Amino acid sequence: MSLQHSTRWPVVLSPPAHIAPSKFMQTRPVLPLESPPVILEDYPSLPREPRSGTFVPGYSISTHVFPAAWPRCPSSHFAPPMEMTASLSKEAAAEMILHLSATKETQERGKDPRPANRNILWTVANRVVRNTSSQGLGNGLTLIFLHGIGTHKETWEPILRRLLNSRSSAHFGPQIEEVWLLDGVQHGDAALLNEGLLGDTFDLVDYSRDLMNFVLAYLPTQGTEDILAGLSRVSDVEIHNRQRHGFKSRTIVGVGHSLGACSFVYPAVLYPSIFSSLILVESFTVPEYVKYLDAHRKNETACLRRKWAWDSKEAAIEFIRGNSYYQSWHPEILHEYFHHAITETNNGQWRLKSHPFLEAVMLLERVCIYEAWQMLLDIKPNTPLHWVWGGKSKRGGGIDVQTQTTYRHPGQNSNVWHPGVDHLLPQEIPDLLADDICQFLGLQYPPNLESRL
What we know:
- With 453 residues, this protein is of the alpha/beta class.
- The protein has helices at residues 90-108, 157-165, 188-194, 204-218, 236-245, 259-262, 265-270, 298-304, 313-322, 331-340, 356-363, 367-375, 398-406, 425-428, 430-444, and strands at 3-4, 12-13, 54-56, 59-67, 122-130, 141-146, 176-182, 251-257, 275-281, 309-310, 342-344, 350-352, 385-390, 413-418.
- The chain has one domain: Rossmann fold (3-Layer(aba) Sandwich).
- A 9-stranded mixed beta sheet has the order 3-4-5-7-6-8-9-13-14, sandwiched between helices. It has a 3-stranded antiparallel beta sheet with strand order 10-12-11.
- Strand 11 (342-344) and strand 12 form a beta hairpin.
Protein backbone atom coordinates (compact mmCIF):
# COMPACT_ATOMS: atom_id res chain seq x y z
CA MET A 1 0.00 0.00 0.00
CA SER A 2 1.50 3.35 -1.03
CA LEU A 3 0.75 6.74 0.46
CA GLN A 4 0.95 9.99 -1.47
CA HIS A 5 2.99 12.69 0.31
CA SER A 6 3.73 10.31 3.19
CA THR A 7 5.76 12.95 5.06
CA ARG A 8 2.82 15.37 5.26
CA TRP A 9 -0.05 15.58 7.71
CA PRO A 10 -2.53 14.44 6.68
CA VAL A 11 -1.72 12.10 3.79
CA VAL A 12 -3.78 10.62 0.98
CA LEU A 13 -4.54 6.97 0.28
CA SER A 14 -3.63 5.98 -3.27
CA PRO A 15 -5.97 3.73 -5.29
CA PRO A 16 -5.46 0.04 -4.48
CA ALA A 17 -3.31 -2.04 -6.79
CA HIS A 18 -6.14 -4.56 -7.02
CA ILE A 19 -9.71 -4.85 -5.84
CA ALA A 20 -10.06 -7.53 -3.18
CA PRO A 21 -12.70 -10.13 -4.09
CA SER A 22 -15.89 -9.99 -2.05
CA LYS A 23 -18.98 -12.15 -2.00
CA PHE A 24 -22.12 -10.47 -3.30
CA MET A 25 -24.48 -9.76 -0.43
CA GLN A 26 -28.21 -9.46 -0.98
CA THR A 27 -29.36 -6.48 1.02
CA ARG A 28 -32.52 -6.67 3.05
CA PRO A 29 -35.64 -4.64 2.12
CA VAL A 30 -36.08 -1.37 3.98
CA LEU A 31 -39.33 -0.79 5.85
CA PRO A 32 -41.44 1.94 4.24
CA LEU A 33 -41.80 5.25 6.04
CA GLU A 34 -45.39 5.55 7.22
CA SER A 35 -47.03 8.67 8.58
CA PRO A 36 -47.05 8.25 12.39
CA PRO A 37 -50.42 8.66 14.16
CA VAL A 38 -49.46 11.87 15.94
CA ILE A 39 -50.33 15.56 15.54
CA LEU A 40 -48.31 18.62 16.47
CA GLU A 41 -50.24 19.09 19.70
CA ASP A 42 -49.08 15.63 20.84
CA TYR A 43 -45.36 16.41 20.55
CA PRO A 44 -43.45 16.06 23.83
CA SER A 45 -41.74 18.97 25.53
CA LEU A 46 -37.99 19.09 25.08
CA PRO A 47 -36.09 17.61 28.05
CA ARG A 48 -34.32 20.94 28.63
CA GLU A 49 -34.55 24.54 27.50
CA PRO A 50 -34.16 24.67 23.71
CA ARG A 51 -31.07 26.35 22.32
CA SER A 52 -31.51 29.90 21.10
CA GLY A 53 -29.49 32.96 20.19
CA THR A 54 -26.21 33.41 18.36
CA PHE A 55 -24.13 30.35 17.47
CA VAL A 56 -21.32 32.27 15.75
CA PRO A 57 -21.51 35.78 14.27
CA GLY A 58 -24.05 35.73 11.45
CA TYR A 59 -25.65 32.44 12.51
CA SER A 60 -28.35 31.55 15.04
CA ILE A 61 -29.13 28.24 16.73
CA SER A 62 -32.45 26.64 17.71
CA THR A 63 -33.64 23.21 18.88
CA HIS A 64 -36.43 21.17 17.27
CA VAL A 65 -38.31 17.92 17.81
CA PHE A 66 -40.23 15.70 15.40
CA PRO A 67 -41.29 12.04 15.10
CA ALA A 68 -38.61 9.52 14.17
CA ALA A 69 -39.08 6.92 11.44
CA TRP A 70 -42.20 4.83 11.97
CA PRO A 71 -42.58 1.87 12.31
CA ARG A 72 -39.25 0.33 13.36
CA CYS A 73 -37.56 -3.06 13.51
CA PRO A 74 -39.03 -5.70 15.88
CA SER A 75 -38.01 -5.10 19.47
CA SER A 76 -39.13 -6.13 22.93
CA HIS A 77 -39.59 -3.39 25.51
CA PHE A 78 -36.83 -3.14 28.05
CA ALA A 79 -36.57 -0.51 30.77
CA PRO A 80 -32.92 -0.59 31.94
CA PRO A 81 -32.62 -0.09 35.70
CA MET A 82 -30.35 2.60 37.10
CA GLU A 83 -28.16 0.13 38.96
CA MET A 84 -27.36 -2.11 35.98
CA THR A 85 -23.91 -0.79 35.12
CA ALA A 86 -20.63 -1.22 36.95
CA SER A 87 -22.32 -3.30 39.65
CA LEU A 88 -23.22 -5.92 37.05
CA SER A 89 -20.73 -8.81 37.14
CA LYS A 90 -18.75 -9.71 34.03
CA GLU A 91 -20.47 -13.08 33.96
CA ALA A 92 -23.96 -11.58 34.17
CA ALA A 93 -23.13 -8.97 31.53
CA ALA A 94 -21.67 -11.60 29.19
CA GLU A 95 -24.77 -13.77 29.61
CA MET A 96 -27.05 -10.83 28.84
CA ILE A 97 -25.02 -9.90 25.76
CA LEU A 98 -25.14 -13.52 24.58
CA HIS A 99 -28.95 -13.41 24.73
CA LEU A 100 -29.17 -10.00 23.06
CA SER A 101 -26.71 -11.08 20.36
CA ALA A 102 -28.78 -14.17 19.51
CA THR A 103 -31.90 -12.01 19.27
CA LYS A 104 -30.11 -9.52 17.04
CA GLU A 105 -28.73 -12.20 14.73
CA THR A 106 -32.23 -13.66 14.36
CA GLN A 107 -33.51 -10.22 13.40
CA GLU A 108 -30.67 -9.74 10.89
CA ARG A 109 -31.54 -13.05 9.21
CA GLY A 110 -35.14 -11.90 8.79
CA LYS A 111 -36.35 -14.64 11.13
CA ASP A 112 -37.56 -12.45 13.99
CA PRO A 113 -41.19 -13.49 14.67
CA ARG A 114 -42.00 -10.27 16.52
CA PRO A 115 -44.04 -7.56 14.74
CA ALA A 116 -42.56 -4.20 13.82
CA ASN A 117 -42.16 -1.81 16.75
CA ARG A 118 -44.90 0.80 16.48
CA ASN A 119 -43.95 2.95 19.44
CA ILE A 120 -43.65 6.57 18.38
CA LEU A 121 -40.08 7.67 18.96
CA TRP A 122 -38.68 11.19 18.65
CA THR A 123 -35.72 12.89 17.01
CA VAL A 124 -34.20 16.05 18.49
CA ALA A 125 -32.14 18.30 16.25
CA ASN A 126 -30.24 21.57 16.48
CA ARG A 127 -30.58 23.95 13.57
CA VAL A 128 -27.88 26.52 12.79
CA VAL A 129 -29.02 29.05 10.19
CA ARG A 130 -27.67 32.22 8.62
CA ASN A 131 -29.34 35.33 9.93
CA THR A 132 -31.81 36.96 7.54
CA SER A 133 -29.70 40.07 7.16
CA SER A 134 -26.76 38.02 5.89
CA GLN A 135 -28.57 35.41 3.81
CA GLY A 136 -28.46 37.18 0.48
CA LEU A 137 -29.97 35.01 -2.25
CA GLY A 138 -30.78 32.16 0.12
CA ASN A 139 -29.29 29.49 -2.15
CA GLY A 140 -26.30 28.27 -0.15
CA LEU A 141 -25.44 24.83 1.16
CA THR A 142 -27.43 22.78 3.66
CA LEU A 143 -25.28 20.47 5.83
CA ILE A 144 -26.75 17.53 7.77
CA PHE A 145 -24.63 15.88 10.49
CA LEU A 146 -25.03 12.43 12.08
CA HIS A 147 -22.95 11.25 15.05
CA GLY A 148 -21.64 7.81 16.02
CA ILE A 149 -22.32 5.58 19.03
CA GLY A 150 -21.72 7.14 22.43
CA THR A 151 -21.84 10.77 21.35
CA HIS A 152 -24.61 13.24 20.43
CA LYS A 153 -25.50 16.04 18.06
CA GLU A 154 -23.47 18.65 19.97
CA THR A 155 -20.27 16.66 19.30
CA TRP A 156 -20.14 18.42 15.93
CA GLU A 157 -20.51 21.96 17.24
CA PRO A 158 -16.81 22.77 17.84
CA ILE A 159 -16.08 21.55 14.31
CA LEU A 160 -18.98 23.54 12.92
CA ARG A 161 -17.85 26.73 14.67
CA ARG A 162 -14.44 26.37 13.07
CA LEU A 163 -15.99 25.67 9.70
CA LEU A 164 -18.33 28.68 9.80
CA ASN A 165 -15.59 30.99 11.09
CA SER A 166 -12.94 29.77 8.68
CA ARG A 167 -11.57 32.34 6.31
CA SER A 168 -11.31 29.54 3.78
CA SER A 169 -15.09 29.26 3.74
CA ALA A 170 -15.18 32.50 1.76
CA HIS A 171 -13.42 30.74 -1.12
CA PHE A 172 -16.31 28.52 -2.13
CA GLY A 173 -19.29 30.03 -3.89
CA PRO A 174 -22.41 29.02 -2.00
CA GLN A 175 -22.11 29.90 1.66
CA ILE A 176 -23.30 27.47 4.31
CA GLU A 177 -26.86 28.64 4.70
CA GLU A 178 -28.25 26.08 7.12
CA VAL A 179 -26.99 23.17 9.22
CA TRP A 180 -28.93 20.39 10.96
CA LEU A 181 -27.34 18.28 13.68
CA LEU A 182 -29.45 15.24 14.60
CA ASP A 183 -29.51 13.09 17.73
CA GLY A 184 -29.93 9.37 17.19
CA VAL A 185 -33.04 8.12 19.01
CA GLN A 186 -30.84 6.44 21.66
CA HIS A 187 -28.53 9.39 22.30
CA GLY A 188 -28.53 12.86 23.78
CA ASP A 189 -31.79 14.70 24.30
CA ALA A 190 -33.60 12.20 22.08
CA ALA A 191 -32.54 9.38 24.42
CA LEU A 192 -34.25 11.16 27.31
CA LEU A 193 -37.50 11.50 25.35
CA ASN A 194 -37.39 7.90 24.13
CA GLU A 195 -35.90 6.02 27.08
CA GLY A 196 -39.13 4.38 28.21
CA LEU A 197 -40.00 3.40 24.63
CA LEU A 198 -36.76 1.84 23.40
CA GLY A 199 -36.27 -1.91 23.26
CA ASP A 200 -33.70 -4.68 23.18
CA THR A 201 -32.98 -4.64 19.43
CA PHE A 202 -31.52 -1.89 17.27
CA ASP A 203 -31.17 -1.94 13.49
CA LEU A 204 -28.86 0.59 11.87
CA VAL A 205 -31.27 0.72 8.95
CA ASP A 206 -33.59 2.56 11.33
CA TYR A 207 -30.89 5.21 11.87
CA SER A 208 -30.83 5.60 8.08
CA ARG A 209 -34.63 5.68 8.03
CA ASP A 210 -34.60 8.41 10.68
CA LEU A 211 -32.38 10.43 8.34
CA MET A 212 -34.63 9.70 5.35
CA ASN A 213 -37.69 10.53 7.43
CA PHE A 214 -36.23 13.93 8.34
CA VAL A 215 -35.10 14.88 4.85
CA LEU A 216 -38.20 13.65 3.05
CA ALA A 217 -40.93 14.54 5.54
CA TYR A 218 -39.77 17.20 8.03
CA LEU A 219 -36.95 19.31 6.56
CA PRO A 220 -38.43 22.74 5.71
CA THR A 221 -38.58 23.44 2.00
CA GLN A 222 -36.21 26.42 2.25
CA GLY A 223 -33.49 27.30 4.72
CA THR A 224 -34.78 30.85 5.04
CA GLU A 225 -38.02 29.78 6.73
CA ASP A 226 -38.87 30.70 10.32
CA ILE A 227 -39.95 27.45 11.96
CA LEU A 228 -41.49 26.27 15.21
CA ALA A 229 -39.77 24.06 17.80
CA GLY A 230 -41.98 21.18 16.67
CA LEU A 231 -41.49 20.39 12.98
CA SER A 232 -44.67 19.60 11.06
CA ARG A 233 -44.79 16.85 8.47
CA VAL A 234 -44.91 18.10 4.89
CA SER A 235 -47.61 16.95 2.48
CA ASP A 236 -47.57 13.53 0.81
CA VAL A 237 -47.24 15.30 -2.54
CA GLU A 238 -44.11 17.11 -1.33
CA ILE A 239 -42.65 13.86 0.05
CA HIS A 240 -43.22 12.18 -3.31
CA ASN A 241 -41.58 15.09 -5.16
CA ARG A 242 -38.55 14.96 -2.87
CA GLN A 243 -38.21 11.22 -3.36
CA ARG A 244 -38.13 11.61 -7.13
CA HIS A 245 -36.49 14.99 -7.69
CA GLY A 246 -34.83 16.10 -4.45
CA PHE A 247 -34.94 19.80 -3.53
CA LYS A 248 -35.08 22.68 -5.99
CA SER A 249 -34.00 25.22 -3.39
CA ARG A 250 -31.36 23.24 -1.47
CA THR A 251 -27.93 21.77 -2.14
CA ILE A 252 -27.57 19.16 0.62
CA VAL A 253 -24.26 17.76 1.88
CA GLY A 254 -24.27 14.86 4.36
CA VAL A 255 -21.57 14.57 7.04
CA GLY A 256 -21.39 11.53 9.32
CA HIS A 257 -19.07 9.72 11.72
CA SER A 258 -18.84 5.95 12.25
CA LEU A 259 -22.33 4.41 12.15
CA GLY A 260 -23.63 7.90 11.41
CA ALA A 261 -21.51 7.96 8.24
CA CYS A 262 -22.68 4.47 7.32
CA SER A 263 -26.28 5.65 7.67
CA PHE A 264 -25.95 8.00 4.69
CA VAL A 265 -25.38 5.12 2.27
CA TYR A 266 -28.99 3.85 2.20
CA PRO A 267 -30.67 7.18 1.34
CA ALA A 268 -27.93 7.98 -1.18
CA VAL A 269 -28.88 4.79 -3.03
CA LEU A 270 -32.66 4.87 -2.53
CA TYR A 271 -33.11 8.60 -3.23
CA PRO A 272 -30.17 9.64 -5.44
CA SER A 273 -31.44 13.20 -5.99
CA ILE A 274 -31.29 14.18 -2.31
CA PHE A 275 -27.58 14.49 -1.50
CA SER A 276 -25.17 16.55 -3.57
CA SER A 277 -22.14 14.96 -1.85
CA LEU A 278 -21.19 12.99 1.28
CA ILE A 279 -18.37 13.43 3.79
CA LEU A 280 -17.79 10.12 5.57
CA VAL A 281 -15.60 10.28 8.67
CA GLU A 282 -14.26 6.92 9.89
CA SER A 283 -17.30 5.30 8.29
CA PHE A 284 -18.20 1.92 9.76
CA THR A 285 -18.77 0.38 6.34
CA VAL A 286 -16.70 -2.77 5.94
CA PRO A 287 -16.78 -5.84 3.69
CA GLU A 288 -18.15 -9.09 5.03
CA TYR A 289 -14.82 -10.84 4.56
CA VAL A 290 -13.24 -8.74 7.33
CA LYS A 291 -12.78 -11.06 10.29
CA TYR A 292 -11.30 -8.68 12.86
CA LEU A 293 -14.64 -7.74 14.39
CA ASP A 294 -15.17 -8.61 18.04
CA ALA A 295 -16.53 -12.14 17.71
CA HIS A 296 -16.82 -12.61 21.45
CA ARG A 297 -18.75 -9.35 21.97
CA LYS A 298 -16.23 -8.08 24.51
CA ASN A 299 -16.87 -4.46 23.55
CA GLU A 300 -20.59 -4.84 24.13
CA THR A 301 -20.05 -6.55 27.49
CA ALA A 302 -17.69 -3.78 28.62
CA CYS A 303 -20.16 -1.13 27.45
CA LEU A 304 -22.97 -2.77 29.41
CA ARG A 305 -20.94 -2.42 32.60
CA ARG A 306 -20.00 1.19 31.96
CA LYS A 307 -20.39 3.60 34.88
CA TRP A 308 -23.03 6.14 34.02
CA ALA A 309 -24.43 7.68 37.23
CA TRP A 310 -22.74 9.83 39.87
CA ASP A 311 -23.68 11.69 43.04
CA SER A 312 -22.77 15.08 41.60
CA LYS A 313 -21.81 16.78 38.35
CA GLU A 314 -18.33 17.35 39.74
CA ALA A 315 -17.95 13.60 40.41
CA ALA A 316 -19.12 12.84 36.87
CA ILE A 317 -16.62 15.24 35.34
CA GLU A 318 -13.78 13.96 37.53
CA PHE A 319 -14.54 10.34 36.56
CA ILE A 320 -14.74 11.13 32.84
CA ARG A 321 -11.53 13.16 32.88
CA GLY A 322 -9.70 10.27 34.54
CA ASN A 323 -11.04 7.59 32.21
CA SER A 324 -8.50 6.42 29.61
CA TYR A 325 -11.25 6.33 26.94
CA TYR A 326 -11.38 10.13 26.94
CA GLN A 327 -7.66 10.90 27.25
CA SER A 328 -7.19 11.64 23.55
CA TRP A 329 -10.23 13.93 23.28
CA HIS A 330 -9.75 17.60 22.51
CA PRO A 331 -10.49 19.80 25.58
CA GLU A 332 -13.27 21.68 23.78
CA ILE A 333 -14.97 18.43 22.79
CA LEU A 334 -14.75 17.23 26.40
CA HIS A 335 -16.35 20.48 27.52
CA GLU A 336 -19.26 19.89 25.13
CA TYR A 337 -19.56 16.35 26.45
CA PHE A 338 -19.76 17.53 30.06
CA HIS A 339 -22.41 20.08 29.11
CA HIS A 340 -24.55 18.01 26.76
CA ALA A 341 -24.04 14.28 27.47
CA ILE A 342 -24.82 14.26 31.19
CA THR A 343 -27.96 15.45 32.96
CA GLU A 344 -29.36 15.80 36.45
CA THR A 345 -31.95 13.28 37.64
CA ASN A 346 -35.03 13.92 39.77
CA ASN A 347 -33.22 12.61 42.86
CA GLY A 348 -30.25 14.95 42.45
CA GLN A 349 -27.85 12.48 40.85
CA TRP A 350 -26.10 13.06 37.52
CA ARG A 351 -26.14 10.51 34.71
CA LEU A 352 -25.32 9.99 31.04
CA LYS A 353 -28.34 10.73 28.87
CA SER A 354 -27.90 7.45 27.01
CA HIS A 355 -28.04 4.31 29.16
CA PRO A 356 -25.11 1.91 28.58
CA PHE A 357 -27.62 -0.83 27.71
CA LEU A 358 -28.82 1.20 24.72
CA GLU A 359 -25.27 1.77 23.47
CA ALA A 360 -24.45 -1.93 23.89
CA VAL A 361 -27.50 -2.87 21.83
CA MET A 362 -26.26 -0.60 19.03
CA LEU A 363 -22.79 -2.15 19.14
CA LEU A 364 -24.33 -5.53 18.30
CA GLU A 365 -24.90 -4.29 14.72
CA ARG A 366 -23.17 -6.40 12.07
CA VAL A 367 -25.10 -7.15 8.87
CA CYS A 368 -26.03 -3.55 8.14
CA ILE A 369 -22.42 -2.38 7.93
CA TYR A 370 -21.70 -5.14 5.41
CA GLU A 371 -24.82 -4.23 3.42
CA ALA A 372 -23.75 -0.59 3.29
CA TRP A 373 -20.33 -1.60 1.95
CA GLN A 374 -22.06 -3.62 -0.77
CA MET A 375 -24.30 -0.64 -1.59
CA LEU A 376 -21.39 1.74 -2.17
CA LEU A 377 -21.37 0.32 -5.70
CA ASP A 378 -24.90 1.61 -6.21
CA ILE A 379 -24.42 5.26 -5.21
CA LYS A 380 -24.70 7.25 -8.42
CA PRO A 381 -21.26 8.04 -9.87
CA ASN A 382 -21.84 11.82 -9.93
CA THR A 383 -22.27 11.94 -6.12
CA PRO A 384 -18.79 12.76 -4.78
CA LEU A 385 -17.73 10.89 -1.64
CA HIS A 386 -15.03 12.32 0.61
CA TRP A 387 -13.51 9.86 3.10
CA VAL A 388 -11.70 10.90 6.28
CA TRP A 389 -9.75 8.12 8.02
CA GLY A 390 -7.78 7.63 11.22
CA GLY A 391 -4.55 5.73 10.72
CA LYS A 392 -4.69 4.09 14.17
CA SER A 393 -8.31 3.00 13.77
CA LYS A 394 -9.30 -0.62 13.29
CA ARG A 395 -13.05 0.07 12.98
CA GLY A 396 -12.71 0.59 9.25
CA GLY A 397 -10.56 -2.53 8.89
CA GLY A 398 -7.13 -0.87 8.92
CA ILE A 399 -5.39 0.81 6.01
CA ASP A 400 -5.87 -1.99 3.46
CA VAL A 401 -9.64 -2.14 3.97
CA GLN A 402 -9.89 1.65 4.30
CA THR A 403 -8.33 1.92 0.85
CA GLN A 404 -10.65 -0.69 -0.66
CA THR A 405 -13.64 1.14 0.84
CA THR A 406 -12.47 4.57 -0.33
CA TYR A 407 -12.31 3.52 -3.97
CA ARG A 408 -15.28 1.14 -4.06
CA HIS A 409 -17.76 3.82 -5.15
CA PRO A 410 -17.63 3.92 -8.97
CA GLY A 411 -17.62 7.72 -9.14
CA GLN A 412 -15.61 10.60 -7.69
CA ASN A 413 -13.78 9.71 -4.46
CA SER A 414 -11.36 11.79 -2.42
CA ASN A 415 -9.80 11.13 0.97
CA VAL A 416 -7.49 12.22 3.75
CA TRP A 417 -5.76 9.81 6.13
CA HIS A 418 -4.59 11.03 9.56
CA PRO A 419 -1.85 8.59 10.65
CA GLY A 420 -1.83 9.40 14.37
CA VAL A 421 -5.58 9.38 14.99
CA ASP A 422 -7.96 6.65 16.12
CA HIS A 423 -11.63 5.98 15.34
CA LEU A 424 -12.95 8.89 17.43
CA LEU A 425 -11.52 11.34 14.94
CA PRO A 426 -14.08 14.17 15.48
CA GLN A 427 -13.33 14.07 19.21
CA GLU A 428 -9.55 14.05 18.75
CA ILE A 429 -8.80 16.56 15.97
CA PRO A 430 -11.69 19.02 15.48
CA ASP A 431 -9.36 21.63 13.94
CA LEU A 432 -7.98 19.29 11.28
CA LEU A 433 -11.40 17.81 10.55
CA ALA A 434 -12.88 21.28 10.07
CA ASP A 435 -10.02 22.00 7.64
CA ASP A 436 -10.71 18.73 5.79
CA ILE A 437 -14.40 19.57 5.39
CA CYS A 438 -13.69 23.15 4.39
CA GLN A 439 -11.17 22.13 1.74
CA PHE A 440 -13.54 19.54 0.26
CA LEU A 441 -16.39 22.07 0.09
CA GLY A 442 -14.07 24.62 -1.48
CA LEU A 443 -13.07 22.19 -4.22
CA GLN A 444 -16.52 20.72 -4.73
CA TYR A 445 -18.46 23.99 -4.76
CA PRO A 446 -16.29 26.55 -6.55
CA PRO A 447 -17.04 30.29 -6.52
CA ASN A 448 -18.91 30.26 -9.81
CA LEU A 449 -21.40 27.64 -8.59
CA GLU A 450 -23.72 30.07 -6.79
CA SER A 451 -24.83 31.66 -10.04
CA ARG A 452 -25.85 28.23 -11.32
CA LEU A 453 -27.98 27.17 -8.34
